[in-house]
Amino acid sequence: MAGPRSTAPTAAEAELLLMQKQALAEEEAAKAKQELLTRFLQEKLSREEQSSMWGLHKVRTLWRLAQRKTKDQELRQDIEILSQTFTRVMDCKDGVIETLVRDLEEAEEQQNRALSSHLHLMDQLLHLQRCRLGYLEEGFNAQVGALEAEFEAERRAILKQQEWESCCLQDMALATEQDHARNDHEALLNFQSARDDIKNKCWQDQQYSRLQLVARLEGLWDQIQSARRSYAQSTEKKKVEFDELKMKCEKSSREIDVQAKKLQKLQDLVTATKDQIAAHLQESEKQCQHIQEDKDHALQKLQKLRAQISQAGATAHTQLVTLTCQCSATLKVLQQVVEKAQRILRLAEMCRRLETEEEKVLPFYPSSLSESEQQKALRVLEETPIEPLARAMKDYMGLERFWQRFNKAKLEEKALEQARAALANRNQHLRKLLQQYLSGAAVSQKVPRNPHPILTIKKKPHPKK
Q: Which of 154, 94, 118 is closest to 296 using CA atoms?
């Protein structure tokens, strides 16, 4: 009973296991089939994407080739038109260049003529200046020679006068010395003659008195002989001394008086001669002083004349230096003017090259003012301005055409700048749109077209069938 009960469940379990294995095998087969389908669909999707990319690339290349052909044709036509316009412009420019070359040649000839005339005038001016300096130097030398001759004549006259006065003074001194010696000799002779006369007179008086007194003395001599002898014995020595002293005193007193008188006379003569000598010396000193003053005055005049001559030479030198400096400055200014003119001509040539055909035909645009407004503007311009700026603008009325063309060029430059800014903004906007378009195209290429490819494949038939 136990055997059949145990086998029954084993068979059911085997069947159940078999069914489970079959189900697992079917599931595995379904999974493998699904995996094969997914792989096939993925490969097909990749092939379609590659084929679409190659097709898009071919379309783009064909479109680019077509655009290039059309653009090439348009550019060739533009190049032909531009070459024709360029040839016309080159012809115009060649004509303008020829006219400018002729103008430049004429300007160079005028410049050479002006330079030659300027150099000729400078040579004449230098010749005149040299002649003037030669005349001044000759006049200066003549004045110096005249002054030297005058000074030498005055010097000779002064020296002659000084020699004559010195000779006169020497003669006067010699005469005074001779007078003094003569007076001294005469005084000595007078003194000796007077002394001899006095001696002779005294001797005669003594002889006469002696003869008179002899008689008396002879009578009294005997009377007083005895007394005298006695007295003489006692006072003989003193008496002799007294007599000698008395005689000496009388003689000395007389001689002193005579000598005092002579000395007084001699002193008077000496004082007179000294006064005369002092007067002559004062006169000679005054004359020498006058001569010295005249000499100093002449030297001062000579120094003044030399200073004036040196000052005139210095002024002439400074004038010549200033003249040379002014000439060099004018040459520099003329060189700057020539350089400026050359620069203006070069700029004019460049501007002429940059002009268009319309600007060559009509260089000045017509005025936007009406006739009444133009008449009002003319009346305002004809009135005398009050402000200094308006007065200064009056001097530059000839540059009105220049300022008109300059303003036109400035306005065109501003318009071109604005157009350039607008084109730059437009280009930037187009770049942004292109970037947005390219970013959208890249996103569309990355995202798949059908999110459920399995369902779509089930509906569609297989391409092999």
A: 154
- Within 362-452, where are the H helices? 371-382, 388-394, 400-446
Under 8 Å between Cβ of 187 and 265: yes
Phi, then psi, of 463 in degrees rounded to 5:
-65, -25
Q: Name residue, tokens 């003689």.
A: 251
Rounded distance between C-alpha atoms, residue 299 and residue 315, angstroms: 23
Going by the DSSP 8-state scheme, the letter that residue 297 receives in this structure is: H
* Range 75-83, long-range pairs (CB < 8 A, 24+ positions): none
Q: Which of 172, 161, 152, 155 has its CA nearest to residue 288?
A: 161
H helix count then E strand count, the chain: 6, 0
Q: What is the number of alpha carbons within 13 Å of residue 27 lying toward its C-beta?
A: 6
pLDDT in tens, 61-110: 888 888 888 888 888 888 888 888 888 888 888 888 888 888 888 888 88
The pTM of the full predicted model, rounded to 2 decimals, is 0.25
CA 412 to chain centre: 44
Longest alpha-carbon distance in the chain:
267
Q: Residue 44 is which amino acid?
A: K
d(CA 413, CA 419): 10
Spatial separation of the C-alpha atoms in residues 201 and 207, rounded to whole Å = 10
Please write the tens of the pLDDT for every residue from 269-289.
Answer: 888 887 888 887 788 788 878
Residues 6 or more apart from 327 whose CB is under 8 A from it? 122
Q: What are phi and psi of 451, to 5 degrees?
A: -70, -20
Question: Token match 């002989």: residue?
Answer: 225
Q: Is the dihedral of CA 177, 178, 181, 187 positive or negative?
A: negative
